[in-house]
Amino acid sequence: MKQAIRLWQALDTPADDEIDVDGTVEDDLGKSRDGSRTDDEVVQREEEAIQLDGLNAAQIKELREKSEKHAFQAEVNRMMKLIINSLYKNKEIFLRELISNASDALDKIRLLSLTNEDAMASNEELTIKIKSDKEKNMLHITDTGIGMTKEELVKNLGTIAKSGTSEFLNKMTEMQSEGQSTSELIGQFGVGFYSAFLVADKVIVTSKHNNDTQHIWESDSNQFSVIDDPRGDTLGRGTTITLVLKEEASDYLELETIKNLVKKYSQFINFPIYVWASKTETVEEPIEEDAEAAEEAEKETAEDEAEVEEEEEDKDKPKTKKVEKTVWDWELMNDIKPIWQRPAKEVEEDEYTAFYKTFSKDTDNPLAHIHFTAEGEVTFKSILFVPTSAPRGLFDEYGSKKNDYIKLFVRRVFITDDFNDMMPKYLNFIKGVVDSDDLPLNVSRETLQQHKLLKVIRKKLVRKTLDMIKKIAEEQYNDKFWKEFGTNIKLGVIEDHSNRTRLAKLLRFQTSNSDTELASLEQYVERMKEKQDKIYFMAGTSRKEAESSPFVERLLKKGYEVIYLTEPVDEYCIQALPEFDGKRFQNVAKEGVKFDESDKAKEKRETLEKEYEPLTTWLKDKALKDKIEKAVLSQRLTNSPCALVASQYGWSGNMERIMKAQAYQTGKDISTNYYASQKKTLEINPKHPLIKQMLSRVNTDAEDQTASDLAVVLFETATLRSGYQLADTKAYGDRIERMLRLSMNIDEEPEEEPEEPAEDDSEDKDEIVDEDDDEETVRRLCDCCMMRMQNGEFISGVLTPLTVLSFLLFFLSCRQQQTRMNCEALNRGVCNIGARTWTKVLFQYHRG
After folding, report:
1. Where are the transmembrane segments (predicted)?
2. Was 655 annotated as part of a binding site?
């Protein structure tokens, strides 16, 4: 077994046993056994000084005889088991804890040196050094801090926070019995050192304090011993912690593993951290005489003919050769400085950019940053950044995915970036660091102890983040930030009640004021008309759909600006924002759109309402009895005959489409079914010819079936144009086809065709005849439509869903491919049929 194991066997041997010294213990166990060593004497002394087992046989015997054995108390043993098995979920944090303790020791000696000039006389350096020894399965962590006396070794390491142990254990038991997380426990028990037993079978602490001799403390987690170090003062001042690692923890001896852990957890520690590491260098070495003679013997005889002067010059030159050699030396790990500790005015922009790229691993420059110190209930320093591009998968597992972009430090020691509540969900793209000297930690340093302090930090971080975003230049904000993170701001309006007003000022939307520029709500309010008291918005799948909606016709004609909501989250966002700057929002697809009217306009509207009362009553009580809540004259329509309007608390067509498209929608949700089944209000345009004609027919004969069919067609067409879905699309198609037949004087019942004969030749002949008949019918229809269009019976306008669906159904009714080509010609011939007059044309055809 290795020399380290010999030492522990010797220490565990009974006092009466003799130690076989000859051939088993070398005179100098402290010398390095590395395959390749540097020749630098200083580095060699550093290496030898860190060895634990540089002891001769007599010193080992003295350790065995004079060491003071101590047993941990029963509750301390229980505590050790909890630490090793329960508290620390991640074993790798042992190195973070030991480095943190070393940093505290260095802080203490530095403060002491301010009042005592001799405190650092034995060693001026303030460093932390880590060395792995694979051969002996040991890991050494050495600091030049204040060190510990024998009494402090027994008190600090031999008892685990003696005054609070019982209280800690009682609280631990209570929380575990209630199923609560033990991560809430106060971190004042000083047990971070014992995380070493997560990876080590034995821990040896060698320490030298200015006021005492050097001592060795050793423990296997069951008992510990303390003894004067027989080697004398090898440290000068400070502490070396040596871990004899468990077999399964051997990975922590690898240099890359050690370097990665140091950079992950401790790269911003105030004191330099070095790792004993190797590197390959090309060096020149003198050629030995024997080798030189052998080389000369192999040379060609031409060398003997060289001139004597040249030979003399060669003799004066040193005989060397270039060789690659492995060199061991101390490598600095934490060369990145915590710039957040410096005043913001002293940090250059280039430094912020370089720091951001280093810690975030982002190749792009940040879009914005803020550097501040927060004071009050908790004091902390922070730097926050807005990235230029949104991280990939930003909304994947939104709300359940933990945010790892904010890194929490306590006294420059990395604690965690595994957060659910450091920043709200909608700010999950913000990157940065938070460093506090005030935060108490739980016993394992893995979560915060007092959540109320975390809430204070969160509140300040959100405020500072919103201030940072607000200060982004307008051009950059619209072109870059809003494009990448606009949805996050909208989600913030929905989720963050306390900051809703601040977030509302960051919103941007397309509006009717400009085809290209986005507008803020502040800009919209500034452009509002004199007596306008509401902010108008229209939701749709695209800007084109929103601005062509019948709901915005009169608003645009009168010069009102309308906000276009084109993303699914937009309508949710506005619903969560009841008002802005004292102005309430009005969905123009819902009830409540009114205009400031003069007395004359109001009197005219009342006259029209009285005139059209027979029609509105007939629509509500008879023609559309089970389909609408009521029928009223519209103030918002100018070109369309009618529109379907939701109540103030109902779903607009856009919202209904979004809700029905939800992947989790099962049709069993009571509230969803309630909103979906609500009846709408049918608003009719009294100036439209179709509505006027319908009023005339109702006044003539309220039982007119054609008027009823026309009313249903108008209702269903309005349903589609208002963004809603039809409950029965087949019935709608059948109704359109029936009206088409009536308009073309075609029998409502299709002619029965004779059974086709079984013979193939006859079948082919019949198909040809049928095809000719179909072509003849289509040709006559084309001629008829073209003639009527030339006569001015069709008014130019916009193609409506009714028109499209009508010809689509007729198109599909044609059975032969050649006939379809004629139908396409028919469709092209009537593409100018007006939206306002198509139904009227059908009605006129039927009447004629």
Report:
1. 794-812
2. no
